């Protein structure tokens, strides 16, 4: 029987009319999931003769969709008068919205209201389905699964105190943000700092017709056009055209403003989509991307939970199937690695708590760094940056050489073996500035300092959006799933060789030469990356 995760309180029975949105993962045929992984790697590995020959949704449907299972599910939903039903184009993931009364009857379990902070969800802790449904459906998502924790950028309060004294951050560089409050950015990370450190060129004069990027925002994290204009003016940058995929309310959420301002500053004028939804659901975002005929080619997402906070391996495996489908279509997905070091949201204990979806082998995970000195130069691991090894998923082939080398290197000073699964998928894959030493200068109502891997992720996504655009402008396909390219081009990243992600004390993973479970392959060097990208078929 499942249990409500920490902090969620049972408020009482749900009202019969309360709405419940569920996600049904249909069973796949024998061998279909293995074929999907094979197809993904064939079109994503630069050494493959099929590199860049991405699959269409019709291609995916041809071997993943089982019509009999779909018919069984839809018949059951119709029998229970559930009419709000939205399958993806491939058809193996179905979103259905119903009342709590309908759900209670279908799953033979009363639905309850759980609350945490200002959030309210309708869930049950245990359920049953008819035998015919169990044969057709592998997982029912968001029935017993609780929302991920909202992203809270790590250094907001500390930086406000620091900025309140007028002193700015510790960085010893010229402040490029001086107008309309930008003088408060002194010593903080600004677009010019990133462009200097990561060799990011001036904005291209024009972009390819189908070039695109996106950030995902949730639960009140709206953006303000007025504050974006203030950032653009104050920091002398031009932000790209924004398409609102959702319902923006023109209020400035710190997370959304951080994402938009910095992916935009790095990769302007590539068009930016902001995918907003009120519910904090990974499945809702995946379903929308999988359903869309034209999602952005580069996607940055800054949230997650621990693997141990998920409802089980089957749930995570089916989320991975959806990630693989997205990658096989030529769409890149990057997630932040988390802001609690090796311990995750579950906190310190007898073992580390790897992140999900950070532990998924089929996304690109971005960790966090600080500058070693107070000047622009070498970086070290931010102690709170997430990293480690999955307890659920094995080490994928594309990273085996790099990760096994790390595990054998005496300089790694590895934590005791009891703390982590050395045979699991290692993460992060790459990193970028994100620590609290010099937070990012963000305008969200006023200029303030904000830190976290939720800063690192959109910056790396912006770099890859530029690289993607270069390929598209040359008449080549998008990069799609990025990890095989990343692990084959270690020399195109700034290696991070110091620091430990132990959340400030005790055990953690130490950065060394090459890949490590604190900074991945390192931070981006655009000049070297674009050379590697131009060499791709």
Can you offer a commentary on this structure?
The structure is a single chain. The protein is α/β, with parallel strands linked by helices and 537 residues long. The chain has two domains: 9-27 and 66-141, no CATH class; 156-534, Rossmann fold. The chain has helices at 32-44, 57-64, 67-79, 100-107, 131-136, 156-164, 191-197, 225-234, 254-267, 282-291, 313-328, 400-408, 453-473, 483-488, 526-534; strands spanning 9-13, 19-26, 84-87, 93-99, 112-116, 119-123, 137-141, 213-218, 242-245, 272-277, 298-301, 305-306, 332-336, 355-356, 364-371, 379-381, 388-394, 424-427, 430-433, 440-443, 447-450, 493-494, 523-524. The strands form seven sheets. Strands 8, 9, 10, 11, 13, 15, 16 and 19 form an eight-stranded mixed sheet that branches. A four-stranded antiparallel sheet has the order 3-4-2-7. The longest helix has 21 residues, at 453-473. It is globular. The chain starts with 8 loop residues before the first strand and ends with a helix. The relative contact order is 0.14. Mean pLDDT is 92; it is low at 155-167.
């Amino acid at each position: 029987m499942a249990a409500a995760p920490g902090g969620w309180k049972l408020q009482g029975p749900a009202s019969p009319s309360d709405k419940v949105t569920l996600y049904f993962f249909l069973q796949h045929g024998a061998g279909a999931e293995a074929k999907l992984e094979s197809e993904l790697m064939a079109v994503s590995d630069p050494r493959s003769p099929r590199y860049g020959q991405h699959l269409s949704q019709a291609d995916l449907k041809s071997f993943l969709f089982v019509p009999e299972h779909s018919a069984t599910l839809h018949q059951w939903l119709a029998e229970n008068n559930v009419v709000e039903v939205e399958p993806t184009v491939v058809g193996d993931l179905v979103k259905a919205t119903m009342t709590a009364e309908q759900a209670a009857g279908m799953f033979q379990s009363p639905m309850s209201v759980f609350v945490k902070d200002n959030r309210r969800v309708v869930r049950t802790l245990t359920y049953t389905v008819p035998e015919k449904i169990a044969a057709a459906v592998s997982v029912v998502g968001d029935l017993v699964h609780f929302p991920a924790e909202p992203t809270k950028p790590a250094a907001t309060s500390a930086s406000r105190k620091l900025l309140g004294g007028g002193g700015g951050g510790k960085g010893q560089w010229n402040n490029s943000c001086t107008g309309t409050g930008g003088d408060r950015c002194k010593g903080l990370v600004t677009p010019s700092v990133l462009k200097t450190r990561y060799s990011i060129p001036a904005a291209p004069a024009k972009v390819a017709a189908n070039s695109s990027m996106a950030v995902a925002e949730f639960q009140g994290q709206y953006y303000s056009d007025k504050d974006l204009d203030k950032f653009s003016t104050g920091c002398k940058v031009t932000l790209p055209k924004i398409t609102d995929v959702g319902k923006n309310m023109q209020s400035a959420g710190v997370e959304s403003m951080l994402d938009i301002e910095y992916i935009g500053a790095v990769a302007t004028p590539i068009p930016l989509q902001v995918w907003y939804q009120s519910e904090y659901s990974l499945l809702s975002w995946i379903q929308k991307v999988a359903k869309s005929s034209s999602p952005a080619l580069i996607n940055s997402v800054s949230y997650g939970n621990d693997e141990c906070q998920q409802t089980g391996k089957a749930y995570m495996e089916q989320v991975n199937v959806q990630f693989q489908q997205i990658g096989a279509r030529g769409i890149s997905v990057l997630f932040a690695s988390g802001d609690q070091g090796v311990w995750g949201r579950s906190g310190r204990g007898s073992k580390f708590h790897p992140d999900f979806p950070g532990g998924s082998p089929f996304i690109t995970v971005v960790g966090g760094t600080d500058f070693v000195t107070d000047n622009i130069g070498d970086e070290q691991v931010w102690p709170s940056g997430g990293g480690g090894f999955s307890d659920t998923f094995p080490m994928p082939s594309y990273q085996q050489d790099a990760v096994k080398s790390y595990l054998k290197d005496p300089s790694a000073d590895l934590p005791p073996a009891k703390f982590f699964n050395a045979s699991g998928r290692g993460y992060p894959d790459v990193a970028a500035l994100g620590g609290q030493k010099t937070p990012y200068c963000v305008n969200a109502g006023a200029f303030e300092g904000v830190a976290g891997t939720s800063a690192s992720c959109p910056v790396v996504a912006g770099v890859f959006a530029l690289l993607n655009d270069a390929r598209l402008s040359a008449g080549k396909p998008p990069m799609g799933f990025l990890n095989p390219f990343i692990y084959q081009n270690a020399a195109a990243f700034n290696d991070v060789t110091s620091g430990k992600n132990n959340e400030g004390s005790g055990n953690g993973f130490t950065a060394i030469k090459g890949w490590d479970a604190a900074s991945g392959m390192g931070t981006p060097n655009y000049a070297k990356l674009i050379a590697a990208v131009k060499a791709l078929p």
